[in-house]
Design a protein that fits this description.
7 helices
C-alpha cells in the first residue's frame, strides 16, 4: 500500500500479561513491526500482569510483601522500588524493545486493570510509599517517550473518531459494544482477550448527516495455558492485534489481524510466520 505524505501507519496490541506472555506472539509482533515501520504504536493495557499484587495472591507466598520479606522492603524505599522493578522487568524490556525498533514512532500506553494492581496494593499496604511508585519507576515510560493514561481515565482520543482504552466490559459477544454504548465513542480496546468488532449508525446525528461509531477488540498476546491464566477454565480468547492506515493523519482504516495456531498472520497482504 502506497503511503501518502501525511498518512500514518499505526500498530496496536494488548494483554501481553508479562511474565505470562506468549513468546512466539511477541516474536511475531516485532517481526511485523520491523517490516511495517509504524509511525505510531499503542499498547492497550495489561502489558504487565502484576500478579504478586493481586487479590488472588494475597496471603500466599507469591504475594509481593511475602515474596520479598527477607529484604524488609517496608523499611527501605530504594530497595522496595528495586524489587518492584525486578517484577516489572519483562514489561519494561518489551516497552524498551518497541522504542529500539521504532525509534521515531509516537508511543502510547493505556494502562489496564492488571497494570495498576501495584498502585492499589500500595495504597492498601504501604500508603506512605505509594507516591514514589510511578509508571516511570516501574517501566521507564517517561524516559522511553511514552504518553500514557491510567485505567480509571476516560478513553483517549487518538486519530479522527477513534479513541483508545484498555476496556471496561468483558461481556461475552459484546464487550466493545457495551463500552461503546456507555461511552458513546468509536473505540479500540483490549481487556476481553477476544477479537471482535461492532458498528452502529445514528442517522439523525450531525444535523441529519449521520454518524457511524466503530468498535474493535484486538485480542491478546499471553499464554492462555500458562500458570497465570488459570483463573478461568474456558478460554474463549483469540490471539491477534490491529494495524491501521491513518488517511491524511485523520481517518484510521482499521485492520484486525488474527494469528493462526501456527503463528501465521497476513498484514497488508504480506504473510508472516515463525
Amino acid at each position: 500500500m502506497t503511503q501518502a505524505k501525511n498518512d500514518l501507519k499505526w500498530m496496536l496490541s494488548s494483554d501481553q500479561q508479562f511474565p505470562y506472555q506468549d513468546d512466539k506472539m511477541i516474536e511475531l509482533w516485532f517481526k511485523v513491526m520491523k517490516w511495517f515501520k509504524p509511525d505510531v504504536v499503542d499498547y492497550l493495557g495489561d502489558t504487565d500482569d502484576q500478579a504478586c499484587y493481586s487479590k488472588y495472591t494475597e496471603g500466599k507466598p507469591t504475594e509481593f510483601l511475602k515474596a520479598y520479606k527477607n529484604d524488609d522492603v517496608t523499611n527501605d524505599l530504594e530497595l522496595m522500588i528495586k524489587d518492584m522493578r525486578i517484577e516489572a522487568s519483562g514489561a519494561r524490556e518489551f516497552y524498551a524493545k518497541t522504542r529500539k525498533i521504532a525509534p521515531k514512532a509516537q508511543l502510547f500506553s493505556a494502562l489496564g486493570n492488571h497494570d495498576i494492581r501495584i498502585f492499589d496494593y500500595l495504597d492498601k499496604k504501604i500508603p506512605e510509599y505509594a507516591k514514589h511508585v510511578t509508571p516511570e519507576a516501574l517501566w521507564s515510560l517517561d524516559s522511553l517517550g511514552y504518553d500514557y493514561i491510567y485505567y480509571d481515565s476516560l478513553p483517549r482520543r487518538r486519530f479522527g473518531d477513534i479513541h483508545v482504552h484498555h476496556g471496561m466490559s468483558i461481556a461475552a459477544g459484546g464487550a466493545v459494544r457495551k463500552d461503546m454504548e456507555d461511552m458513546q465513542v468509536s473505540l479500540i480496546r483490549g481487556h476481553s482477550h477476544r477479537i471482535a468488532s461492532h458498528m452502529v449508525t445514528y442517522e439523525l446525528r450531525n444535523n441529519g448527516e449521520g454518524e457511524t461509531l466503530r468498535g474493535y477488540e484486538i485480542g491478546h498476546m499471553c499464554d492462555e495455558k500458562g500458570p497465570g491464566m488459570k483463573y478461568t477454565q474456558h478460554h474463549d480468547w483469540q490471539k491477534g492485534f490491529a494495524i491501521a492506515h491513518i488517511e491524511n493523519g485523520n481517518y484510521p482504516h482499521i485492520q484486525m489481524i488474527h494469528v493462526s495456531p501456527d503463528y501465521t498472520c497476513v498484514v497488508d497482504g504480506k504473510k508472516f510466520t515463525l
